[in-house]
Amino acid sequence: MTDFNGMLAGYRRFRETGWAQQRERWDELSEGQNPKVMVIACSDSRVDPTQIFDTSPGEIFVVRNVAALVPPFETNPGHHGVSAALEFAVQVLKVGEIVVMGHGKCGGCKAALSQELKDAPPGEGGFIANWIDLLDGAREKVVAEYGDDRGRDAHRAMEQEGVKVSLDNLRTFPCVRSKERNGSLKLVGAFFAIADGQLHVLDEQSGAFSPA
C-alpha cells in the first residue's frame, strides 16, 4: 500500500505522462469545467468512480461520503456539504444526470444494519452513527425481510436500499424535483459489486438492480 512519498512518485509520473501528453485538455480545463454527470459515491477507497467509469478529468463531478448518502432538503442552520455540492452541480454546472452509486462490502451500510455504533460519542463513532441514521428507514425494510440474519444477502439488501434512500432524498430538493419533472435532469441508481467488479443499475419501477 502506498504512503505520501509513493503518492509523490505517482504525481511525478502523472506530470511526465498524463499531464504532459494531454496539455491541450488541461489547458481547456484551466478555463473551467463542464461535466454532464454528477456521481454521488462512497468514500471507500476501493470504489473510485473515475476508475470504474474510466473517465478523464473534467468529465464527472464527484461527491463522496460515508455510504454515498444524500440528506433530505433542510434549511436549518449548519454546514450542508452534500447539499452545497448538489446545488452547485444542478444550478451552476447544470448537469443532466445524477448517479447515486452504492457498493458491496460497504462499512457504513453494515454499521447502519448492525447498529454497532449507536450511542457512541462523537469522535469515537458518534459522527458516523449520526450520519448513517439516514438509513434507519432502509434498515427497517431489511430487518422486516431478513430478521436477525446478518449474512451477505442482508448486507447486499441494505447497500441497495441505501441507494434508494439517496434517490428519494434527492427528490426532496426543489431544484432537482423541478428539473426532473421538465426532463432536464435524470436520476440513476447504481451498485458496484467489489467482489466481481460488476456494475448494476436500478430499475426504479421494479426496484431491482440488474447488471449493466
In whole angstroms, the N-to-C terminal distance is 30 Å
Beta-strand content: 15-25%
Percent helix among the residues?
40-55%
Question: Going across the major beta sheet, what is the strand order?
Answer: 2-1-3-4-5-6
Q: Whole-number radius of gyration?
A: 18 Å
Secondary-structure content class: alpha/beta
Q: How much is the average pLDDT? A: 95
Low-confidence stretches: none
Number of strands: 6
Coarse shape: globular
Layout of strands and helices, then pairs:
Layout: H1 4-21, H2 23-29, E1 37-42, H3 49-52, E2 60-65, H4 81-92, E3 97-103, H5 107-114, H6 126-132, H7 136-146, H8 152-170, H9 174-181, E4 186-193, E5 198-203, E6 208-211
Parallel strand pairs: 1-2, 1-3, 3-4
Antiparallel strand pairs: 4-5, 5-6
What keywords describe this structure?
6 strands, globular
Report on the architecture of this protein:
With about 210 residues, the chain is of the alpha/beta class. It is about 45% helix and about 15% strand. It is built from nine helices and six strands; from the N terminus they run ααβαβαβαααααβββ. It has helices at about 5-20, 25-30, 50, 80-90, 105-115, 125-130, 135-145, 150-170, 175-180, and strands spanning about 35-40, 60-65, 95-105, 185-195, 200-205, 210. The protein has a six-stranded mixed beta sheet with strand order 2-1-3-4-5-6, with helices on one face. The two termini are about 30 Å apart. The mean pLDDT is about 95.
